[in-house]
Every structure is written in structure tokens, then in C-alpha cells.
């Protein structure tokens, strides 16, 4: 778990301080003061401009279809929309000081710098859920991340603790790609192909074990818990797949096809035994024979941030920076992972950079807010994002300091806004699936 303090006064050589703020860079691009480019100039606006519109808002998943039932955010009071950056910064600090230990603020690695600087803990979704668990005394856990992360924190925290998501429109396009109704329907179709999905064979294995990535709704984690399955993170996906193969002949992996494919391929599973399940087609677009021969059935989901990375970007980085070390996240497509020097979780990427003893050039394939912060944090290295277009995660973008100030000042006034609660019928099996993951050992 990483405690925050991140200094803003970092220098590379004798040059000017490096600015870790992606928002500042976007503002400079839109003002014509930077030669870089962004995927949309809408990113320079406040996220409240998009709260009532359909879609994920500007950023990496703006081209994806948002489910109709996704939570929407009500209007942010005008005073928070009008406040300057400096005023919001001061108001968040003041509210936090008043609340003291009553509230813990968690900030995901991909969150904007202006929010992360207020976080008591910075980390990936699972590290932050554990940070929430480590503070049973806090009345409120303010989760500056996305919806499924707040749900996981609710699963792992005490029932009396309120988990708050500052902007309810901060979902996750990848998590939304595995809808519980579609997954239930898939399971019924697999029953038609494999028969009783709880029947064990002579080796003691069932036909299919469902495995869900942490980046999925609590409803999906609950489904997995009810059907003998397990949750994984990008750090432990291999260990979890080994756990699953010890108990089942094959795995149904969702929502991220790329993490599933990259992990199973590294374990020696042939690509032809990893069919894709398209939830809009009968049998996911497969025939019985393909499914019967499969080892890993991959759900048709992906992360729109990590899908932006390409082999061409890696080739360009190698041509322009001889000796560059290319590290990408395993949510990237397989050809990108294959072309990189290393692939690993955000935690892996951070540790790899921290462990480099000689000045090194790193080209990183993950969300730009983390990459830019690492570049500022480690000025002895040259660190840049493989994607030259500044295009942050659309849904992380929805958490702005204005929303953070709003929910914290409401807490000071005794009001809990935007509470995320997982119903008991879901939380019990979902917790079972999480506990299986915690108990799985390499
Ligand atoms: S980076 Fe990708 S997986 Fe992470 S929250 Fe954004 S859309 Fe979801």
C-alpha cells in the first residue's frame, strides 16, 4: 500500500519542475500552449457538463456504449462548479482536517493529480479496498476511483461504514461489459453444452469454473461466488487460474479478454483453446465442439484505455529511444504484450521503476495519470506514456476536486452523499469469491 505524499517540486536535471497534472497538460493543449494532442478538447471542461448526458463522457471509453441502467450523477451545486482550483484545494483540506480520523480518502493510481494529492492512500483497486479494511474506526470511506472499486470497499469494510463515490457517473466501461443478466444467460447455455456444471469428473473437476477480474460489478463477483468461482487481480491472475484449473476442466473468464488471454497464453494454453464469448450471439458465437475443446472461454470485454496501445507505438519508442525499457499492463492486447519487454500490474510497473538503479528510459503502456505522476516522482529516469495522445480514463476523469469537496463538506455537516451499498444477497457470495482469492497461493 502506498501512502501519498507526492511532491510537486521535482526536477529533471537542471530543467524546470515536472508537472504531474494531466489536467494542466490538457488545459495547455486546448489553449494552444502545448504541441501535444488530446483525444478530445471536452476534457478541458468540468465533468459536471457531462453528468446528465448518455455515455461515459470524454476520454478513453467515450466510444463505448453505456448500459441504460448505469448510475447517473445529480447536479453538482453551483458553488463547487464555480470554485477555482485553489479554492477547492483549500476547501478539501479544511474539510479533511475537520473530519480527522472520521473519514479516509482513497485515491486510485489513475485518478487525476488534483484529487490524488488529498488521498490518505494511493493504490490499485485491491490495495485500496484493503486500506479501507485497515480503518475500521473511520465512519466514511471516500473512494476516489470507480463504481466497482467502491463496491469492493463496501464488501470488505464494516457494515456501519459508509463508502462514498464522489461522482456516481464514475463507472468502468470494462466492468459494464459483463452484465449479470448476460452472464446468467451464458451459464445456462454452457449447461446445455456441458450438462450439470456442478458434476465432478473422475479427476474431481467440474466442467467450468467462473473467474472474474476485480474490475467487475459486485453482482458478477456474487455470481462467481455462488458457482464455485473466484476473483483475480492483474497481479495474481496466474495463481488464480492455476487454482481454477485444479478444480475445473476449463475457465469462463470475464470481463477482460486481454488479461485472460495474456495470462493463459503465458501458462501454455494454446490460442485455439481460448474461444471468445460474444454475449449477443447464441453460444457466444461458438459451436459445441469448440466449447467442448476449450480451456479458457474469454468474455468479449476490454479496457478502452489499454486498448489504445499498439505495436506501432512500441516500434516508434524503440526507434526514437534506443535501449528503452517498455512495460505494459496485461489489459493491453496480446500483440502489444508480446512486443513489450515486460507486462505487469500497476504495482509491478511502479516497483520496476522504483527498483531501477541506473538512469533509464521507460515507455509505459498504462493510464496517463499514473505515467505522468511516475515521471514527476522519478526525475532521474525518462518516463513517458506509449500513447502520444493524452487520453485519460473517461470514468476516472469524472472524479473532480469539486465532487470531493462536495461530499467531504456534506460529511462535516453530518450528511452522507453518494453512498454505495451492496445488498446482503450479493455481498455474501461475492465475499466468498474474494476470500477464495485471498486464500489462493502460488
Ligand atoms: S482504466 Fe479501464 S479498467 Fe480501469 S477504470 Fe478505466 S475503463 Fe475501467
UniProtKB/TrEMBL annotation:
<keyword id="KW-0004">4Fe-4S</keyword>
<feature type="region of interest" description="Disordered">
    <location>
        <begin position="51"/>
        <end position="77"/>
    </location>
</feature>
<feature type="binding site">
    <location>
        <position position="125"/>
    </location>
    <ligand>
        <name>iminosuccinate</name>
    </ligand>
</feature>
<comment type="function">
    <text>Catalyzes the condensation of iminoaspartate with dihydroxyacetone phosphate to form quinolinate.</text>
</comment>
<dbReference type="GO" id="GO:0051539">
    <property type="term" value="F:4 iron, 4 sulfur cluster binding"/>
</dbReference>
<dbReference type="GO" id="GO:0005829">
    <property type="term" value="C:cytosol"/>
</dbReference>
<dbReference type="InterPro" id="IPR023515">
    <property type="entry name" value="Quinolinate_synth_A_type3"/>
</dbReference>
<dbReference type="InterPro" id="IPR036094">
    <property type="entry name" value="NadA_sf"/>
</dbReference>
<feature type="binding site">
    <location>
        <position position="346"/>
    </location>
    <ligand>
        <name>iminosuccinate</name>
    </ligand>
</feature>
<feature type="binding site">
    <location>
        <position position="108"/>
    </location>
    <ligand>
        <name>iminosuccinate</name>
    </ligand>
</feature>
<dbReference type="Pfam" id="PF02445">
    <property type="entry name" value="NadA"/>
</dbReference>
<feature type="region of interest" description="Disordered">
    <location>
        <begin position="1"/>
        <end position="20"/>
    </location>
</feature>
<feature type="binding site">
    <location>
        <begin position="329"/>
        <end position="331"/>
    </location>
    <ligand>
        <name>iminosuccinate</name>
    </ligand>
</feature>
<dbReference type="InterPro" id="IPR003473">
    <property type="entry name" value="NadA"/>
</dbReference>
<keyword id="KW-0963">Cytoplasm</keyword>
<keyword id="KW-0479">Metal-binding</keyword>
<feature type="binding site">
    <location>
        <position position="393"/>
    </location>
    <ligand>
        <name>[4Fe-4S] cluster</name>
    </ligand>
</feature>
<keyword id="KW-0808">Transferase</keyword>
<feature type="binding site">
    <location>
        <position position="172"/>
    </location>
    <ligand>
        <name>[4Fe-4S] cluster</name>
    </ligand>
</feature>
<comment type="similarity">
    <text>Belongs to the quinolinate synthase family. Type 3 subfamily.</text>
</comment>
<dbReference type="GO" id="GO:0008987">
    <property type="term" value="F:quinolinate synthetase A activity"/>
</dbReference>
<protein>
    <recommendedName>
        <fullName>Quinolinate synthase</fullName>
        <ecNumber>2.5.1.72</ecNumber>
    </recommendedName>
</protein>
<feature type="binding site">
    <location>
        <begin position="213"/>
        <end position="215"/>
    </location>
    <ligand>
        <name>iminosuccinate</name>
    </ligand>
</feature>
<feature type="binding site">
    <location>
        <position position="303"/>
    </location>
    <ligand>
        <name>[4Fe-4S] cluster</name>
    </ligand>
</feature>
<keyword id="KW-0408">Iron</keyword>
<dbReference type="GO" id="GO:0046872">
    <property type="term" value="F:metal ion binding"/>
</dbReference>
<feature type="binding site">
    <location>
        <position position="234"/>
    </location>
    <ligand>
        <name>iminosuccinate</name>
    </ligand>
</feature>
<dbReference type="GO" id="GO:0034628">
    <property type="term" value="P:'de novo' NAD+ biosynthetic process from L-aspartate"/>
</dbReference>
<keyword id="KW-0662">Pyridine nucleotide biosynthesis</keyword>
<keyword id="KW-0411">Iron-sulfur</keyword>
<comment type="pathway">
    <text>Cofactor biosynthesis; NAD(+) biosynthesis; quinolinate from iminoaspartate: step 1/1.</text>
</comment>
Amino acid at each position: 500500500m502506498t501512502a501519498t505524499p507526492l511532491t510537486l517540486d521535482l526536477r529533471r536535471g537542471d530543467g524546470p519542475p515536472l508537472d504531474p497534472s494531466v489536467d494542466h497538460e490538457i488545459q495547455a493543449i486546448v489553449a494552444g500552449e502545448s504541441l501535444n494532442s488530446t483525444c478530445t478538447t471536452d476534457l478541458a471542461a468540468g465533468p459536471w457538463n457531462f453528468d446528465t448526458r448518455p455515455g461515459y463522457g470524454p476520454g478513453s471509453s467515450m466510444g463505448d456504449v453505456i448500459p441504460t441502467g448505469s448510475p447517473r450523477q445529480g447536479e453538482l451545486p453551483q458553488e463547487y462548479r464555480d470554485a477555482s482550483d485553489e479554492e477547492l484545494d483549500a476547501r478539501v483540506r479544511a474539510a479533511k482536517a475537520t473530519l480527522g480520523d472520521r473519514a479516509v480518502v482513497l485515491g486510485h493510481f489513475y485518478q487525476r493529480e488534483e484529487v490524488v494529492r488529498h488521498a490518505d492512500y494511493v493504490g490499485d483497486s485491491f490495495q485500496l479496498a484493503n486500506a479501507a479494511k485497515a480503518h475500521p474506526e473511520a465512519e466514511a470511506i471516500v473512494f476516489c476511483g470507480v463504481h466497482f472499486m467502491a463496491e469492493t470497499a463496501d464488501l470488505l469494510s464494516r457494515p456501519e461504514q459508509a463508502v462514498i463515490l464522489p461522482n456516481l457517473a464514475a463507472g468502468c466501461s470494462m466492468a459494464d461489459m459483463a452484465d449479470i443478466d448476460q452472464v446468467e444467460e451464458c451459464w445456462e447455455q454452457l449447461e446445455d453444452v456441458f450438462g450439470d456444471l456442478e458434476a465432478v469428473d473422475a479427476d474431481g473437476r467440474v466442467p467450468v469454473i467462473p473467474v472474474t477480474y476485480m474490475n467487475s460489478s459486485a453482482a458478477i463477483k456474487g455470481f462467481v461466488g455462488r458457482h464455485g468461482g473466484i476473483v483475480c487481480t492483474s497481479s495474481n491472475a496466474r495463481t488464480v487460474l492455476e487454482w481454477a484449473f485444479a478444480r475445473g476442466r476449463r475457465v469462463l473468464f470475464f470481463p477482460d479478454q486481454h488479461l485472460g488471454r495474456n495470462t493463459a497464453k503465458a501458462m501454455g494454453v494454446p490460442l485455439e483453446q481460448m474461444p471468445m464469448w460474444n454475449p449477443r450471439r447464441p453460444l457466444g458465437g461458438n459451436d459445441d465442439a469448440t466449447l467442448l475443446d476449450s480451456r479458457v472461454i474469454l468474455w468479449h470485454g476490454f479496457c478502452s484505455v489499454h486498448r489504445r496501445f499498439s505495436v506501432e507505438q512500441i516500434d516508434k519508442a524503440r526507434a526514437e529511444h534506443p535501449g528503452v525499457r517498455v512495460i505494459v499492463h496485461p489489459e493491453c492486447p496480446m500483440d502489444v504484450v508480446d512486443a513489450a519487454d515486460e507486462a505487469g500490474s500497476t504495482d509491478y510497473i511502479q516497483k520496476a521503476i522504483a527498483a531501477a538503479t541506473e538512469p533509464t528510459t521507460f515507455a509505459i503502456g498504462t493510464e496517463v495519470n499514473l505515467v505522468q505522476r511516475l515521471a514527476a516522482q522519478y526525475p532521474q529516469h525518462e518516463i513517458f506514456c506509449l500513447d502520444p495522445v493524452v487520453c485519460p480514463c473517461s470514468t476516472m476523469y469524472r472524479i473532480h476536486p469539486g465532487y470531493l469537496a462536495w461530499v467531504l463538506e456534506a460529511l462535516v455537516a453530518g450528511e452522507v452523499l453518494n453512498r454505495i451499498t451492496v445488498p446482503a444477497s450479493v455481498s455474501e457470495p461475492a465475499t466468498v469469491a474474494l476470500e477464495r482469492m485471498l486464500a489462493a497461493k502460488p
